[in-house]
Amino acid sequence: MEVSNIVNNVIEAWHAMSLIELIGVLTGIAGVWLAARQNIWTWPVSLVSVAMYVVVFYDARLYADMGLNAFYVVTSFYGWYVWLYGGKGHTERKVSRVSSKELTVLLLLGLVFTLSLGYFLENYTDADLSYTDSATTAISLIGYWMMAKKQLENWLVWLVVDVLYVGVYLYKELYLTSGLFFIFLILSVKGYLEWKQELEVQPARGVQAN
Fold first, then answer.
1. Average pLDDT in the 56-77 region?
2. Mean pLDDT across 60-73
C-alpha cells in the first residue's frame, strides 16, 4: 500500500506540474504575441506566465531561471507603467533604439552577473548547468530591461537567448517549455519587424503633426 501511495503521489505531482507548465506556455506565447503588437495587455498576461515558471524551474533545479522569473513578477509592473506613462509628458511610450553607451554597460553588467552567479551556483548549490543557466538569465535580464523601455533591439537579444533556451530545456526534458521558446523565436522575428516598421514611420508622423 505504501508503494502504491507513493506512486500515486508522484503521478499526481507530475500531472500538477505539467498543468502549471502548460499554463505558463500558453500565457507566455500570448504575452510575447501581445508585446510584438505593442499591446499593453502583454504585461498582465506575462505576469501569469512568469509566476507559473517560478514553480516549474524550482522543480527542475534551474535556480537562476527561477530567480529570473521571480524578478519578472516584480519588474513586469515597471514595464506596465513605462509603456503607459513613460513617453514625453507621461504619455504612451514609443519605440526607440538603445544607445551604444547603454548597450555597452548592459553587456558588461551581463558578463559580471554571469560569472558571479555561475560561480555561486556551481560551488554552493546543486544547480544543473550553472554557467549556462546564469548566462541565459543575464541575457534575459538585458532583453527584459530593453523591452520595458520599448527599445527595438530587445527582439535581437531575445533571438539569441531563445536559441540557447531551446537547447537547455530539451536537455532538461522540459519539452513543452522547449517548444515554447521555439515559438518565441518566431515571435521575436515578428516583433522585430513590426517594431522596426513602427520606428520608421514615427518621423513621418511627426512631420504630419507639424
1. 83
2. 82
Whether residue 38 contacts residue 54, with contact meaning beta carbons closer than 8 Å, is answered with no
Task: Write down the pLDDT at residue 9.
Answer: 44
Q: Are 176 and 22 in contact (CB under 8 A)?
A: yes
pTM: 0.78
Q: CB 192: neighbour CB atoms within 10 A?
A: 18
Q: What is the DSSP letter of 89?
A: G
> 152 by DSSP, 3-state: which?
coil
Q: Is the backbone of residue 95 left (phi > 0), alpha (psi -120 to 50) or beta?
A: beta
Own/partner pairs for 55-61, CB < 8 Å, 24+ apart? Answer: 55/17, 55/20, 56/17, 56/20, 56/21, 56/24, 56/174, 56/177, 59/17, 60/128, 60/172, 60/174, 61/126, 61/127, 61/128
Angle at 117 between CA 171 and CA 29, to 5 degrees: 50
- The residue ranges of every structural domain in the chain are 2-209
Beta bridge partners of 96: 151
